[in-house]
Amino acid sequence: MVFVLSADDNGEGGIFALYALLCRHARFSLLPNQQAADEEISTYYGSGDATRNLPSSAFKSLIERNKRSKTALLILVLVGTSMVITIGVLTPAISVSSSIDGLVAKTSLNHSTVVMIACALLVGLFVLQHRGTNKVAFLFAPIMILWLLSIATVGVYNIVTWNPSVYKALSPYYIYVFFRDTGVDGWLSLGGILLCITGTEAIFAELGQFTATSIRFAFCCVVYPCLVLQYMGQAAFLSKNFSALPTSFYDSIPDPFFWPVLMMAMLAAMVASQAVIFATFSIVKQCYALGCFPRVKIVHKPRWVLGQIYIPEINWVVMILTLTVTIFFQDTRHIAFAFGLACMTLAFVTTWLMPLIINFVWNRNIVFSVLFILFFGTIELVFFASALAKIPKGGWITLLLSLFFTCITYVWHYGSRKKYLCDQHNKVPMKSILSLGPSLGIIKVPGMGLIYTELASGVPATFTHFLTNLPAFYQVVVFVCCKTVPIPYVPQKERYLIGRIGPKTYRMYRCIIRAGYKDVNKDGDDFEDELVMSIAEFIQLESEGYGGSNTDRSIDGRLAVVKASNKFGTRLSRSISEANIAGSSRSQTTVTNSKSPVLLRLRAEYEQELPRLSMRRMFQFRPMDTNFRQPQVKEELFDLVNAKDAEVAYIVGHGHVKAKRNSVFVKRLVVNVAYSFLRKNCRSPAVMLNIPHICLIKVGMNYYL
Fold first, then answer.
1. CA-to-CA distance for 368 and 214, rounded, in angstroms?
2. Fewer beta carbons below 10 Å: N end or C end of the chain?
3. ∠ at Cα 551 (546, 555), nearest 5°?
4. 387, 421: one domain
5. How far apart are CA 620 and CA 587, in angstroms?
């Protein structure tokens, strides 16, 4: 815990935080969308990090050049990620089921009835996930503190009552005695002993909600002493009541305190399950952001704390799997074996990533990495081998679930990467764009066209494919690229990267919107207004000869970091109106553009059905009456504002992906079946980007990978 908690990514933890750290300090990412300007983000490197200017080691260069090594690293991370999701399935099952096992020991209820009660509690837990925990989160800490104090008190009572000499078990000598007397059976029991330390993986995954110091203090001063007292108490109780082994915990509780402790156990199980479910949502969000998970709906409400999210699809899938495991196994021992294997595998994967962190991120000698893996890896290998022995007794469900989730994540990443490389290969050369002239050889209509693309440079084939079929487009063209940078959060003032494509008369711009892998889209964000203000700021900065370090030289011009904020009074003035969209300035401008009255009526009716759109703030922009050094600047600002007021359309590629005919059978199976199935059954890009359906234009594209 001391070492791993130190490997945080700007305060964030988890298996993907380690991978993001490695991708920032070495070229380990398989997706070639990195830019030099990304490294200028203030949070890209840690404070005082001097490793960015150090020469690469031979080992680091070997991995960067070897595609198979980078693929193996990615698969290792995805295996760890699948284990986190598997733990999210198994933790509620074993926590809730084991917490109410005392009903069997103290009442006449049969085991099937207790399982049904556990299922009812699990359904309630998952059904309430969409409401968040902001109203009850203040109860979590008191519940866990009371639970820990309760089990510690029961442990002390049992020590005093049954066997005070049990304190001798604290001596390391008895570890030797235990293995000497038990032999292979003692080694096999390590798979069960491992359950005493489970939960640390969830703590590391939720490191961003706390601090490493607070976690270390709570573990060393509260959690660990209470657990030691409880387990010593159970050992003292079993030394005199060995026949009560199956239900030793509840049998060791004094009768007057049984029901209070049972209620505390149920509440603590719900809190622990909630924490692991939240960690599951978080790891899926990180996977999706870094291109390793299909598009899912991510909900974050303004009243929730920073970082708290809800993913409906994952919630219901995990609930179904949890209920299936609970009903199928019935016995918590088999679930415990599966749970222990998942936790040990995740810990083992984390241990194998740490030497890379030590060498590439902390810039320590490779000798320290070798010593780390030899010491901790050897210890964990003993536990891991013992956990593998439990596969026939329930551990197989862990292998099945992890294989399922690993295949999903890798297939999606493989298909997305191949599609990106295909887009990059088919992008339009700038020479062909410049040869068409300012009009691009088409008819230009009033309005602004936002062309969404995954490419951070160049003109996507979607644009030319659209012009080939319909030789008309909007007077202002903006190529929008939403990309994820391998850092947790990107400051709002550094999120927009604006550039120009071609000469100024072309009125073509590029906007790269950068987000961290834990950033979430907040409801109410007005993307169009921020985009217009950012482009206006870029136009002004360009006229003033902007030449900062936050630039990215490319064939289509210079990209500059534009601080997107609400203070753009030096460029544009704006007025706010709370009127409905149907009666707003945009609709009025549309009327002057000779649009069909029928279309206007249909559009007004459609937008009235969307309260978020019809009641949102509408900004009207006008260039301020200031003296510009270059008259072309004011003219360009007027063109930008008029285009925005006239119409804003969103152009998104709608691709059909297939493998090439000469591809091997495995590739055709992965692309044509698995990847195509995931694409058809996940959220569409337009939904993920919050694009109004009335303003959406889809361009069909065929991809042969």
1. 27
2. N
3. 105
4. no
5. 12
Q: Which pTM does this prediction carry?
A: 0.86
Give the CB-side neighbour count of residue 485, counting CA atoms within 13 A. 28
Same domain, yes or no, for 502 and 364?
A: no
CATH number at residue 372: 1.20.1740.10
Query: Minimal CA–CA distance to 509: which of 556, 545, 443?
Result: 556
The residue among 415, 441, 476 that closes a domain is: 415
User: Is 564 strand, coil or helix?
Assistant: coil
Residues 515, 289 contacting (CB under 8 angstroms)? yes
Look at the chain and count its residues.
705
Same domain, 671 and 681: yes
Q: Domain end: 415, 449, 464, which one? A: 415
695 CB-side CA count, 13 A: 23
User: Both 92 and 104 in a single domain?
Assistant: yes
Handedness of CA 34, 35, 36, 38 (dihedral sign): negative
Q: Look at phi and psi of residue 289 and say left if phi exceeds 0, alpha if psi is from -120 to 50, else beta.
A: alpha
- Alpha-carbon gap, residue 654 to 702, rounded angstroms: 9
Predicted confidence (pLDDT) at residue 538 exceeds the cutoff of 50: yes
Q: To 10 degrees, what angle do helices 111-127 and 67-99 make?
A: 120
Angle value at C-alpha 483, between 691 and 427, nearest 5 degrees: 90
Q: Is residue 609 part of a domain?
A: no
Closest CA to 37 of 495, 428, 481: 495
SS3 295: coil
Structure tokens belonging to residue 678: 């995931």
| Residue 652 in domain | yes
Flag whether 684 is in a domain.
yes
- Residue 610 forms part of a structural domain: no
Phi, psi of 526 (to 5 degrees): -100, 95
Retrieve residue 33's tokens: 């969308």
Mean pLDDT of 347-359: 91
- Residue 309 is given by DSSP the state -
Q: Is residue 12 a contact partner of residue 282, using CB atoms and an 8 Å limit? A: no
| DSSP track, 177-240 | HHHHHHTHHHHHTHHHHGGGGTTHHHHHHTGGGS-HHHHHHHIIIIIHHHHHHHHHHHHHHHHH
Count of the separate structural domains present in the chain: 2
In the structure, what pLDDT confidence band is assigned to residue 624 with cuts at 50, 70 and 90?
Answer: low
**Do residues 622 and 637 touch, judged by C-beta distance below 8 A?**
no
As a whole number of angstroms, the distance between CA 526 and CA 303 comes to 19
Q: Are residues 61 and 99 in the same domain?
A: yes
Looking at the structure, tell me whether residues 42 and 143 fall in a common domain: yes
How big is the chain by its Cα radius of gyration, in Å? 29
Kindly give the pairing relationship between strand 696-704 and strand 648-658: parallel
Q: Are residues 8 and 34 in the same domain?
A: yes
Task: Please enumerate, as own/partner, the contacts of 368-372 that have beta carbons within 8 Å and a separation of 24 or more.
Answer: 372/3
Give residue 495's domain range.
Answer: 417-546+555-575+618-704
pLDDT in tens, 472-524: 888 899 999 989 998 988 888 888 889 888 888 888 899 999 998 888 876 54
Query: DSSP class of residue 566?
Result: S
**Beta strand pairing status for 508-516 and 472-485?**
parallel
Q: Are 268 and 98 in contact (CB under 8 A)?
A: no
